[in-house]
Amino acid sequence: MLLIKKPEGQAKIISRTEEKRILHSLDAKQNSERNKVMFLLTIKAGLRAKEVAGLRWSMVTDATGEITNAISLTASICKGTKGRTIPLSKDLKQVLQQLQKNSTRIQSFDPVILSARKTAMTHHGVVYFFRILYKDNGLIGCSSHSGRRTFITRLANRIISVGGSLRDVQQMAGHSSLSITQSYIEGNDRAKVEAVNLI
């Protein structure tokens, strides 16, 4: 896939190959399950670093404690004044279930992501985690926002084929306007050529 150059200052998009390499690299690390959840919360659900740090089990479980099919973010951890709901991908649901299974005495208000000291991870801790993760995998230009940009771009590229629109992408991203959502989306030169040839 050919991509146009990203605007200056924006986090780099992660390719499918890079995503697989990162997930494979996490298998060999301490806190592998937690780290996979952190990575997939950004690339499969578009969460910001602040939202990853603020996520509670009550936002991903039902009344019986089972992992649900969607993340229900509350306004308290989102940017702006509204919460939002994001459907859970199969991959993310599976790693959340594994993390939950291997955690002890979880309460609904407990953070999903804990530091090595078993305390709530801070926003800055999440940002640092991603800086080291991408550096260790040789990815230049990536930051804690790369997964989010990747999620929004991939979603925008697929949403119309399943009957959705950019408005759906905007809602899942938690943006106040479509113009903000559009600024996150990476262009695709090949798609442009194919689209023009269909006219």
**CATH topology type of the domain at 16-147:** hpI Integrase, Chain A
Spatial strand arrangement across the major sheet: 1-2
Radius of gyration equals: 17 Å
Kindly state the number of beta strands: 2
Low-confidence stretches: 1-7
Order of helices and strands: HHHEEHHHHHH
Helicity, in percent?
Answer: 40-55%
Largest sheet, in brief, is: 2 strands, antiparallel
Q: What is the H level of CATH, i.e. the homologous superfamily of the domain at 16-147?
A: Intergrase catalytic core
Pfam family, one: Phage_integrase
Domain Tyr recombinase: 9-197
Protein name: Tyr recombinase domain-containing protein
InterPro entries: DNA_brk_join_enz (IPR011010), Integrase-like_cat_sf (IPR013762), Integrase_catalytic (IPR002104), Tyrosine_recombinase_XerCD (IPR050090)
Structure, explained:
Helix 2 (32-43) packs antiparallel against helix 4 and helix 2 (32-43) crosses helix 6 (146-158). A two-stranded antiparallel sheet has the order 1-2. It has a domain at 16-147: Intergrase catalytic core (hpI Integrase, Chain A), CATH 1.10.443. The protein is 47% helix and 4% strand. It has 199 residues and is mainly alpha-helical.
